[in-house]
Amino acid sequence: MREPSHDSTPPAPAEPVPAIWTGRATNRVQWLLAVAGAACIALGIELAVVSNWTSGVAPLVMSVVGCVAAGLLMLYGTLAFVHVAVKVDSDAVEVRCGHMGLPRRRIPLSHVVGAEFEPKVTPRHWGGWGYRWRPERGTAVVVRRGEGVVVTLGDGRTFTVTVDDAESAVRAIRDRLGAGPGKPAQI
Q1: Which structural domain range is residue 123 located in?
Q2: Does 5 fall in a domain?
Q3: Rounded CA gap, 60 and 66, in Å?
Q4: Element containing residue 146 per DSSP (H, E)
Q5: Residue 128 belongs to a domain with what CATH number?
Q6: pLDDT digits (tens, 9 = 90+) for 11-68
Q7: Please, are residues 121 and 160 in contact by the beta-carbon 8 Å criterion?
Q8: Is residue 16 part of a domain?
Q9: What is the reported pLDDT for 158?
Q10: The dihedral of CA 28, 134, 95, 186: what is its sign?
């Protein structure tokens, strides 16, 4: 049996929580899908420009429109969710997706009752990458597999987001929940 350690060094203090916490997560694999979308658009343009038009106008127009539409959908879908940025300030948790920041979700801290660290968020559990909703799980923004933050709202719903250094995001949210006067820290 080991003797209990009587080390007199105090435990290391927790890192101070910044006034505004920011974090992001990126999925570089989705760039491959963006390239495939651009290739579909290029194929549609090539069909429109180079084609002999011998098979008729309707089949050619359908091919061109189909290629361009599929390419635009793939391109938007991947660029919108290639990365996510999360910001926690004194008022809200804000999640912005992609290069344009759309879609965006702003959750006032007055609606938040708790935050938990989730070490294994996977696209498989949510039905894929992107902005997801599942009745039994809540809403999520999943851009990659890995750690994430699960925010519990006052009405019992949850919002999950994958973000690097999710543990410090949870600390930042919990710190703000306990800091306000009259705010119960139900975490």
Answers
A1: 22-181
A2: no
A3: 10
A4: strand 146-153
A5: 2.30.29.30
A6: 444 566 678 999 999 888 778 888 999 999 999 999 888 877 677 788 888 989 999 9
A7: yes
A8: no
A9: 95
A10: negative
Number of domains in the chain: 1
Beta-carbon count within 10 A of 120 CB: 9
Distance CA 166, CA 118 (A): 8
Residue/partner pairs of 179-184 with CB below 8 Å, 24 or more apart: 180/109, 183/109, 183/110, 184/113
User: For residue 86, which phi and psi values (nearest 5 degrees)?
Assistant: -120, 135
The reported pTM is: 0.72
| 72-93: pLDDT as tens digits | 998 887 777 888 999 999 999 9
- Are 105 and 94 a contacting pair, CB within 8 Å? yes
**Residue 7: inside a domain, yes or no?**
no
Contact of 44 with 66, CB cutoff 8 Å: yes
Q: Is residue 10 part of a domain?
A: no
